[in-house]
Amino acid sequence: MQDESLPLWLPQLARHGGPRFLQIADALQVAVANGLLKPGDRLPPQRRLAAQLELDLTTVTRAYDEARRRHLLEGRGARGTYVAAPKVDLTAILDLSMNTPPPPAGVDFDDMLKQGLSRVLMSTEAELLMTYHLGGGSDSDRKAGARWLEPMFGPLDSRQIVVCPGAQAAIAALILALTKPGDVLLAEPASYPGLRAAATQFGRRIVAVEADKHGMVPGMLEQACRRHKPGLVYLNPTLHNPTAVTMAAHRRKELASVAKRCQMRIVEDDPYWLLAEAPPPPVATLAPEQVCYISTLSKCLTPGLRVAFVLIRDSHERERFLDALRSFALMAAPMTAALATQWILDGTADELMEGVRREARLRHRMARDILAGRYSGAGDGLHAWLELPSYWTPSQLARAADREGIAITPAEAFATGAINGVSVNAIRISLGSVKDRERLQAGLQRLSHLLARRPESFSAAVV
């Protein structure tokens, strides 16, 4: 039994709450963040705390060492251990909510960026980089787009490609071009939040179509098409956001067949295809006349480029799409479009993407090891989907994680509609937005400990 004279900052240690040394370090971090412990406060000697907790000295020593590694404590020789003055990053949010590529392994990104911009400036007149351009990209930009899409489609006619200022702009323009106010858009029950945002702004309604472990169910899609006469169907078949599922080849063929039978338009948003391990061919290869295909550089290279390529085979639809795009985004920024083109054509993009791919896979292995049975990821891509224990709800866990300095995304953020009244009890974690791998590891460990506690236990630790 623990001593009643335990420090106020230390909650009852949970039997199944993970390693004891991390529980102690986590409690220290919460106490510092809440002001229960202040800079200069003296901590109990390690031997005394070990005796009070009925733990061996090594466990408490490891806890203090972990707290020092987090810049929470500082040793003052024979005078003991004290709460350290806060550093800038002590209470900084550890962002596991934003899907961005991780820092590329083995790649000097700063040097790559400087060299790329230097080549652009040497080969292009400055005034051309600072003036208006026709929407849809230059001939060089479209040829770069054809090169970017070649792994998915083989050789392409670059005239069928439109260069856009990001995938979100492409989705919005496709909704405007292919649908009218009041139309239904079909999507999986959990889907990219940007789709819902655009549909709401434009007065379209999203209807959820049942999905299973392979993705959208073809029979349910056909029923929904005949019932709702949708303006379009939205698919994200590779490393699906948020569930990280990659749709199998047979499912893609079945959905393509439904699209042909029902004469419906599909928007295939495929930002992660080039990061995936041997993904099946896109749906757009199976029903080329039915599918508009989007591939963005933001998820494979860097969000700052704000460049996406859209493959639209039908020339009339392409013109309607360009008209819609010009209504709110005249063009991709010429400087970043030129940099993207330079990187794709000189091979830099492949080098950068391979670095991102290596780092992403290292981080997935880390997440799988730390989160054990709760991890549901493909081992590549930028995110994982975590099914929660029954005692947590997604929004409840998101609030608790926020108090621990961790940002996560609850399932509700992706919901397009519940099927048969059933909602999903899960969260998405993004593995790329934390620059430092050690900080990511510490955050995942804290999240794992949080998942192991029941909400009331966590509340007792922070009140």
TrEMBL record:
Keywords: Aminotransferase, DNA-binding, Pyridoxal phosphate, Transcription, Transcription regulation, Transferase. In the C-terminal section; belongs to the class-I pyridoxal-phosphate-dependent aminotransferase family. GO terms for molecular function: transaminase activity. This is PLP-dependent aminotransferase family protein. Pfam families: Aminotran_1_2, GntR. The keyword DNA-binding applies. Residues 18-86 form the HTH gntR-type domain. SMART domains: HTH_GNTR.
